[in-house]
């Protein structure tokens, strides 16, 4: 476990707002678990991992090395945030954490 970073909170807030959800309705725990030892940037947000209830939003980002990254914000059956999941298509380390202005909506970078 580690403390959530401000850039992670900012990204979650942006994503929730983008889909017209109130971030206050989806409180973010102060402590998160990193997946893959933090290599790709995925974190568990404290929801019930056995109660996955779907993706809230999926966007894409192109990392500094030109590799597409799929970012998915998920929730559990209790309407709590579950994961902020990053999948870098070549499974390498995320080089630069995405900012909202670098996200791609609609037109996929992954082919």
Can you walk through the features of this model?
There is one protein chain. The protein is mainly beta. The protein has one domain (2-102). The protein is built from one helix and six strands. It has one helix at residues 6-18; strands at residues 2-3, 31-34, 43-44, 52-62, 68-76, 81-88. A six-stranded antiparallel β-sheet has the order 1-2-3-6-5-4, with helices on one face. Strand 4 (52-62) and strand 5 (68-76) form a beta hairpin. The longest helix is centred in the N-terminal third of the chain and has 13 residues, at 6-18. It is globular. The protein starts with a strand and ends in a 23-residue tail after the last strand. The mean pLDDT is 91.
Provide the gyration radius in Å. 13 Å
Task: Tally the beta strands.
Answer: 6
Q: Which parts are unreliable, with pLDDT below 50 for 5 consecutive residues or more?
A: none
Strand order of the largest sheet: 1-2-3-6-5-4
Q: Average pLDDT across residues?
A: 91
Alpha-beta classification:
mainly beta
Instruction: Give the number of helices.
Output: 1
Can you give the helix content as a percent range? 10-25%
Major sheet characteristics? 6 strands, antiparallel
Q: How many structural domains does the protein architecture include?
A: 1
Strand content: 25-35%
Q: Give, in order, the helices and strands.
A: EHEEEEE
